[in-house]
Design brief:
It contains 22 helices and 28 strands. The protein is α/β, with parallel strands linked by helices. Strand 4, helix 6 and strand 5 (130-133) form a beta-alpha-beta unit. Bound molecules: beta-D-glucopyranose. Beta-D-glucopyranose is lined by residues 97-98, 134, 183, 232, 276, 279, 311-312, 536.
Length: 771
Amino acid sequence: MLLGRFVPILFGTFIGMVLLSLASCGANQDANSNSEESEFVDSVLTSLTIKDKVGEMTQLTLGTIMVGSPYDLKEPQQLDTAKVRRVLLDYRVGSILNCGNHEHTPEVWHTFISGIQAAAASKLSGVPVLYGIDAIHGATYTAGAVLGPQQIGLAATWDTELVRKGAQNTAREVAASGIPWNFSPVVDLGRDPRWPRFWETFGEDPFLASKMGVAMVRGFQEGPSPIAATLKHFLGYGMTLSGKDRTPAWIPERQLREYFVPSFQACVDAGAMSIMVNSGEMNGIPVHSNKSILTDLLRGDMGFEGVVVTDWEDVKYLVTRHRIAHDYKEAARMAIEAGIDMAMVPIDLEFSDALLELVEEGSVTEERLDVSVRRILTMKYRLGLFENGGFPPSLDTYPAKESLEEAAARAALESITLLKNERQNAVAANQTILPIGGDGINWDGKVFVTGPTAHSLNALNGGWTGTWQGMDPKYNTPGRPTLVEAMESRFGSSSIVREDLDMEFTPDDIDRVVKSIRRTRPDCVVLGLGEMPYTEIVGNIDDISLFSNQQDLVRAVHATGTPIVAVFIEGRPRSFADVEPLMDAIVMAYLPGDYGADAIAQVLDGSFNPSGRLPFTWPRFASSHMTYDHKYTEQIGTKFGSDAFNPQFRFGDGMSYSNVMYSDLQSVQADYGMNDVMEFTITLTNTSRRNVTEVVHLFSQDSVATITPSVDRLRAFQRIDLDPMETKEVRFELAVQELAFVNRDLDYVVEPGSFGIRVKDQVIGIHVHSN
Ligand code: BGC
């Protein structure tokens, strides 16, 4: 690594020595570069005062150094020189985050970042600032950036390579904006759809979340313009008892290790540079104060060596919300003892003052600061900040938008999940409602498009888009179509009739829609249902059911006798069992982003054969939600049959316009040893005249175990392309060790015995013997 701008400030001679020794390296290059890194970091560390170190461990929001107050900044926004001096020079704050309440153009970002880094370079230590942002589905705070699907939609693609590519593109735009650190991905699980951050996850399954999380970490961190990934939010955040954000979770250690640790562990193993802490409490202990989670588990068992950053204001919340500390200083001591490296304070200097006092009075040692500061400096070093002073690259190198759009648009297409597609009528036996107009040749019909999400780009993008809540249309990407606009361009505007509705539409609005349908006599009605954007506490709900006005709309449209194509644009599955039978086709679009409307339209007109599959279980009833990997006892119904697991749609559900038959599931051996790799084959046949991509899932079923087994556990998946009428044998390899679970002693074990292996409706038995 060549250290340019930073070198003359402090370390010219030292770096010269290191570079000389590097020149002679060969096979030992890795070892040498590691020692170059640690020597460099140590030399910076030794040069820092306690105040510098406290500053390195402090992160403030951009609003604290801008003209105005953090939540009410003067527009157009600009850095406030006096505040910059106080925060970055007097307090030596080492990290800044966020965007000052809304997105900015790359030019504005460059002005901010350059101003910040110039100030940082003029402090005695010269250590550059580490800037962090939430770029969770594209560079969400850079105006005009390419915005793909949110994570829940990415999970529905089951396409890890595409997810990696999308993250790589995000990194290119974020890095080009001058920002090296991304607060993404969320690798917590989405097992409770009431939780308002469900859509920020990869869904309910630990295996899928691990694969997707690793793909995203690699995409961010492995170039060509690497930025640091942050695994969020460690640990157990999404599994609150109430389903509401930042409320208590009660998760037994066994369940924690079997379900919630694996996705984090996989991403730690993939080299994720940072982790953000869960804002909530688990088993009565706020995670920000929990040493056994943040140190013993994370550092000890999981081997994480990167930076642990708190979530927003969470040191203060130990006092004001959780009430386990009497004052800020006590809270800061608790968080430091638990193992945090950096506090996202983020709107005042209370943390810095408190930590300095704690060190001065001897409650926190300087050695403890060194542990965290070494990690922070290492991260800064690995991100190249000491090389370029953290200054943004030239705007001339900003990636061309066109080069990034393909992956986002493709991900939107692959995410769209077709869940129901009825026959048009008893006479046209083979003609389903979708694709609209059948084969599309010379179709001169009419489509009526309405519903509250059909004409909103915000609905397609979800939270953290342009602004935190993603609700302000002012920050929508110019030129990207809403669903109704995409329908107009795919079908021709003369084929589309539209009636727009906002979220709070009334019975009068429904009458207006019905009258318009009766007057225009369309062939079908496309209903854009679902939710407007939200995240965190703002998105808490009291009822998972689909809004009652949307259900009334479905009933009223059905009464006109026109077939209904329901398109759900939403971040969590809302239950809608009463009106489901009134829908002829159902499409789940999740939050597909700026390219989502066109993706939906391509599925509706048949130019794309849908391949998305649900990454979660869709509850049929508001009070009855179970994940696919529930226990046998949870299937027992009131009449003692096994019918209690009765979701609206199952994990992995999704249809295409083709027919694919599964046959002949086989295991190469019937009996395997503990260290064997099992091999299974299954035959897929596309009996239709369309190309299709089939997502094939392989589940295991442990027959008897010392911890009650789940009825199914996902162990592998593959996306298989099939030509018209093609037959393919699909092969799975699976290590026996991947059947492991956490036993009563908290060990990860495979117990010998019988297992079922299930692919779709095919199940075979195998045996595992001990050796
Ligand atoms: C959220 C985090 C986010 C952070 C910084 C918090 O409120 O919980 O997910 O990364 O803010 O914006």
